[in-house]
Amino acid sequence: xxxxxxxxxxxxxxxxxxxxxxxxxxxxxxxxxxxxxxxxxxxxxxxxxxxxxxxxxxxxxxxxxxxxx
Amino acid sequence: xxxxxxxxxxxxxxxxxxxxxxxxxxxxxxxxxxxxxxxxxxxxxxxxxxxxxxxxxxxxxxxxxxxxxxxxxxxxxxxxxxxxxxxxxxxxxxxxxxxxxxxxxxxxxxxxxxxxxxxxxxxxxxxxxxxxxxxxxxxxxxxxxxxxxxxxxxxxxxxxxxxxxxxxxxxxxxxxxxxxxxxxxxxxxxxxxxxxxxxxxxxxxxxxxxxxxxxxxxxxxxxxxxxxxxxxxxxxxxxxxxxx
Lengths: 69, 244
Fold this sequence. Notes:
The structure holds 2 protein chains of 2 kinds.
Chain A: E1 2-5, E2 8-11, H1 18-26, E3 55-57, E4 62-64
Antiparallel strand pairs in A: 1-2, 3-4
Chain B: E1 4-11, H1 22-37, E2 45-48, E3 62-70, H2 72-89, E4 97-102, H3 109-118, H4 126-136, E5 139-142, H5 149-162, E6 167-168, E7 178-180, H6 181-184, E8 192-195, E9 206-208, E10 215-218, E11 221-229, E12 232-235
Organism (chain B): Malaciobacter marinus
């Protein structure tokens, strides 16, 4: 679900692929839910890459900082 | 001593996976002002800034702003408190910026607002931010590392001044499944209820309120947006508020 762009792991599906972001988070050992409720993108199904503390938004998608460690 | 409308905005106080977000710190500062000075503060607004690899934000590049009414003395005391608080509670690698100032001192609101709007679309420099702050009579300061947070801190004030940007921090849940617009307007944090096209909703409209209520900042008001659904009307989902 990620592609390497300039040594950064970028989510391939952008900011509106809610189901894919949830699927990716399911098996992710690094997933941590962002504690700041205001920064959660979804109101239900919160275990999603979009709501992870390690996601760093870009203009079109997000970068996974856990994979970039 | 006379009190004046005061803007307080902070940015860039966290690092990846840090225990405390900028939003939490803003709320804690607000709570301190309310508790220690017995001064009511406004709701906190969250302002989305430009996402670009040249900007060293942690996760979402947003600044947090609120207002209150302070005397000159109080403003200075609170500024000192905030500086100490940021030094203590911001993440070690963060670059906190603080902007504080009186509304009455802003020299050119249109120019300031344009700075804020630019910060949503372009990479701006610290130099530009300091020059603009000086010109506009606003106090801008950096508190750790490279201090890049000053750009967001000033931009947050600028966007708050515009009255047409941001989401209100916090969510509010009601136990009721449906509420009329009239009932919703009685809640403290809701100034208006509007449709997605931003037209006002009339008091008799019934809204499904099973989702948490989140408002956006429009015309200097905390506005709940609603949209049509199968059962009539519902609050606009969080997913659909991303652009605010």
